[in-house]
Design brief:
Elements (H helix, E strand, L loop, with lengths): L6 E5 L2 E6 L3 E4 L4 E4 L6 H7 L8 H16 L3 E4 L10 H10 L6 E5 L8 H6 L3 E3 L2 E3 L2 E3 L13 E4 L4 E7 L3 E10 L3 E3 L10 E2 L7 E6 L2 E2 L7
Parallel strand pairs: 4-5, 5-6, 6-7, 9-10, 10-13, 11-14
Antiparallel strand pairs: 1-2, 2-3, 3-4, 8-9, 11-12, 12-13, 12-15, 15-16
């Protein structure tokens, strides 16, 4: 079952499903791929006296559960920044959630915020790698630090890509987006409390913003 509002694109002769929940589903492999959950960030902020939505963590996990229950992936990949800081109760919420899917294989391609001791990931039955080749793609957190002479297309996150669109009434809208070119796919941040980085669009990029509950194609190249 294809979730409503999704967009199917082809890259390297593979069918990729861009999901309005800010994740990607590789149909041939049945892989669910997402990036930048930043679980625990709200707890970290509140501990520091900064206002943050208390239920963002649970909303992220509910949204992820919906995708898993709908798509039934064989493997879930987190492309970095799964957890934002040192362990807090939100990690244990995540761990409890993870054990509700005991048959699902999960791999974390580590990012700059993934600083927990390896024992946390081991107890949660999560594989941790620095980089993962899955021909014709290579999974990573930050594509800007990656150079390769291969024909693999990188799939990454890290920058929380977004675009700014002007509408009637001179209103500006900041929208999360997928960015796709021949060599690189950048995923939007899956987490609710992550922010956006407005990207500069190059001529070879295709941009797929998420508008409400729908992924659309938007050609912004001049």
């Amino acid at each position: 079952m294809i979730p409503e509002g999704s967009k199917i694109v082809e890259c390297q002769n593979q069918q990729l499903l861009l999901l309005p929940q800010k994740a990607l589903f590789w149909q041939e492999k049945q892989y669910l791929i997402l990036s930048d959950l930043h679980l625990g960030k709200t707890g970290h902020f509140r501990k520091s006296g900064i206002a943050a939505p208390a239920k963002a963590n649970l909303k992220n996990l509910d949204r992820l559960s919906h995708l898993i229950d709908t798509l039934n992936p064989v493997h879930l990949y987190f492309l970095g920044d799964l957890f934002h800081s040192s362990a807090n109760r939100e990690w244990f919420q995540f761990e409890e959630w993870r054990h509700s899917y005991p048959e699902l294989e999960i791999t974390l391609v580590s990012g700059n915020h993934d600083q927990l001791h390896t024992s946390f990931y081991r107890h949660a039955q999560i594989n941790v790698v620095e980089l993962l080749e899955a021909d014709p793609f290579v999974f990573m957190h930050d594509a800007s630090s990656y150079t390769s002479n291969s024909e693999l297309t990188s799939i990454a996150g890290h920058i929380h890509p977004g675009i700014k669109i002007s509408s009637k009434g001179r209103q500006n809208h900041r929208l999360p987006c997928f960015s796709i070119s021949k060599d690189q796919i950048i995923l939007p941040a899956f987490g609710e409390f992550t922010g956006l980085h407005i990207i500069q669009v190059e001529s070879d990029q295709k941009i797929y913003p998420i508008v409400g509950n729908k992924v659309i194609e938007l050609n912004m190249a001049k």
